[in-house]
Amino acid sequence: MSLINDPSMREIVIDFCDESIELFNQLEEGLEILEEDPTRSEELEKFGQLIDRVMGAAKSIGADEIATFCELGKVIGYKSSQSTDTALLEVVIAILFDSVELLRKMVNQIKTGNEQGLKSLNTQAFGTRLSWLSEKFKDIERASCAVEPQSKNLSQTSIDDLMSSLGL
Amino acid sequence: MALNANMKILVVDDMATMRKIIKNMLGQIGFKNITEADDGATAWPMIENALQTNEPYQFIVSDWNMPQMTGLELLKKVRATEQTQKLPFLMITAEAEQGNVVIAVKAGVSNFIVKPFSAQVLKEKIDKIFN
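^ Those are the sequences you sent over. The predicted structure of the assembly is below.
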């Protein structure tokens, strides 16, 4: 059973919601700066770092849809921070604003335990929009905190195999 | 180093929810002596202070992506310090890119775990590190 469905873990889930909402506020503050000046690429990178936090915790409590949205937001944030196409950056900023708003609604639904409300948010269509946008940056390699340009993600099993081959 | 319930563990993550989840899992595994830090930059002075008071940490569980000092930077500091160079260090990340894993291994990570993970997987990793 994931934490999100485990009554004994409700406190952690509520903490996740509160902490995420605080991070969403910080994300919006950064987007407001970008709205004024889309060339502030460091704010897009910061967006990627902040949303990564929500992503990791969302995965851990089993809030998979939120994690997927955050993952797309993170990729878009990091990749767009390396773009100089101002027109495209303006679109990015608008969509990221919408993403944060939707994420906020999703988290609020989890906090109130209103699963029906979550289903009514039409997240699938918006997810498609985010995927479309991330495709626009497909030629930009760095999509995460990777210290080298590298995009191949590994499963835990692959990591275990890799670590064995490296002598661990 | 033998595994014991009172082993002094430091959990480092910038997301409080994650620290709670990891502490909860470590508690389920049987560990009782767990301290938290919210960034590598907070963790390092704690590690240094623990050394000075002769009560060193015996195990570090750290997230990779943190704003002030990343898990990788913390790991490098730990490995560069004589008293902590053999300190077991488990790195946690939400996504594992092959290049990152190799870099962490080169930096001396003891093992690597990807979110989401269960208490069972965490225990397996700990067993692997200490046995």
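Chain A has one domain: 3-165. The radius of gyration of chain A is 17 Å.

Shout if you want it in another format.
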